[in-house]
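Take a protein:
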Amino acid sequence: MSGFSVSPVFSKTVAGPLLNGTGNEPIREIAMHAWSAFVKQLMRDDGGVTSIEYALIGSLIAVTILGAVASLGSSVNDLYQRIATSVAAALA
């Protein structure tokens, strides 16, 4: 099995030029380097912030629409009841 040394878990090594080209770097160091690079990239990425802002604006619009429908709902219902009563009286 070329490429891996038989030793305790987490101290296996990978042969060949990886990351900085030194070769035979422990797998744990490679994983930690990859993880730290991923976290640094997430810290620099601001694309998620924009989508969160759009979500907040959309939820604010939805709450405003729900409030308007709730406040106008009873008024519209009363209007339809008056119209129905007038039509029923006209037809009778």
